[in-house]
Design brief:
Elements (H helix, E strand, L loop, with lengths): L7 E4 L2 E6 L2 E4 L2 E4 L2 E2 L8 H4 L11 E5 L2 E7 L4 E8 L16 E3 L5
Antiparallel strand pairs: 1-2, 2-3, 3-4, 4-5, 6-7, 7-8, 8-9
Length: 108
């Protein structure tokens, strides 16, 4: 890519410019992986497939009178993700801290 005196270059029929914020292509900034805009003939669902993170399945359970958001495990126990309580003392109880394992009630 050759630069003229004005700081512009033609690359593949597109005007490229280098400014204080870095390279731009037709007015949109370039990222480490290329231009910000993606043009494709493929359906958007196929292009973006797998890009969104999958969220773990959560359950709301009551343990000892406290509402917990728990990620179920295969062994009938769950990992505490969040405690929902209006009592400040509940947050100091190690049984309800995020990452603690609690038994899940049987659904039925």
């Amino acid at each position: 890519m050759a630069y003229g005196a004005s700081g512009y270059s033609s690359a593949g029929g597109r005007e490229m410019a280098y400014g204080a914020s870095g390279y731009t292509c037709a007015g949109s900034p370039l990222t480490d992986s290329g231009p910000v805009m993606l043009w494709s003939v493929m359906p958007m669902e196929l292009v973006l497939e797998g890009l969104s993170p999958t969220l773990p399945t959560m359950r709301d359970v009551v343990v000892d009178g406290r509402l917990l958001q728990v990620e179920p495990g295969p062994d009938g126990r769950g990992t505490v993700v969040r405690l929902v309580s209006g009592r400040a003392q509940d947050y100091l109880d190690p049984r309800f801290q995020p990452g603690a394992r609690v038994p899940l009630p049987v659904e039925g």
